[in-house]
Write a structure and sequence with these properties.
Blueprint lengths: L1 E4 L5 H13 L19 E11 L2 E11 L1 H5 L9 E9 L8 H15 L4 E7 L2 H9 L3 E13 L6 E5 L4 E5 L5 E2 L6 E5 L8 E15 L1
Parallel strand pairs: 4-5
Antiparallel strand pairs: 1-2, 2-3, 3-4, 5-11, 6-10, 6-11, 7-8, 8-9
């Protein structure tokens, strides 16, 4: 396995690798058609790696290193140099072969070289992923819930097709016509007890870990 820095010529394979990996993960909705770029107004540096096996990219890793101002104002850890884990993805056909482990070993050494104090990691529930971050020494510092659905006390929405004007007419539970109504969406919930107040179509548990370098 070869671990090297990302090159602009890798972009197509980078996109494919992330898409295939995330398709079978809790991040199925995080798809990109181009490589993630780091905003120079926020990040002073980055670590961008790819893993090569059998002549193809099978893993990607991106970490952005905040500038001094962003680091000192970062909500989870205030320091002179804080980093954020942006991407970690392994092609489904090459998972459980140590690709992520090797990528992170190289990345961690680079973080040490760059005098980064702490790495923030945001993820969603996946037993294998959570266990991996724990093995790396990361500590859970925050948990929340992403709810796809609607509050139970939210008014129902009724649709009617307006054939003449080729559009939908919307009505609330009282029968009043509205130009727009909140039908369903994503709600960020911080307390587990609050979940009982929702009609939930899908529930995604989100976790933030912190790894002190």
């Amino acid at each position: 396995m070869e671990i090297r820095s990302y090159s602009d010529t890798d972009e197509k394979e980078w996109v494919y690798t992330k898409a295939l990996s995330y398709l079978f993960s809790p991040f199925f909705d995080d798809m990109e058609t181009s490589k993630t770029r780091f905003n120079p107004e926020i990040y002073k540096d980055s670590i961008e790696l790819v893993a090569i096996m059998e002549g193809q990219i099978v893993g990607i890793l991106d970490i952005g290193i905040y500038n001094e101002d962003a680091s000192r104002n970062y909500m989870y850890y205030q320091g002179d140099s804080v980093a954020y884990f942006t991407n970690l993805a392994v092609h489904p056909d090459f998972q459980k072969k140590g690709v992520a482990k090797k990528l992170f070993e190289v990345a961690r050494n680079k973080l040490i070289e760059k005098n980064v104090e702490a790495l923030s990691i945001f993820t969603r529930k996946s037993d294998a992923t959570l266990e991996l971050y724990k093995k790396w020494g990361a500590k859970l510092i925050c948990k929340d819930y992403l709810v796809v659905g609607r509050p139970k006390n939210q008014s129902s929405v009724r649709f009617q097709f307006d054939k003449e004007n080729k559009k939908l007419n919307l009505f609330n539970i009282q029968g009043e016509q509205k130009a727009s109504l909140l039908n369903e969406g994503h709600y960020l919930v911080t307390d587990e007890e609050e979940l009982e107040n929702f009609d939930i179509d899908e529930l995604i548990e989100e976790y933030t870990y912190l790894l002190v370098i």
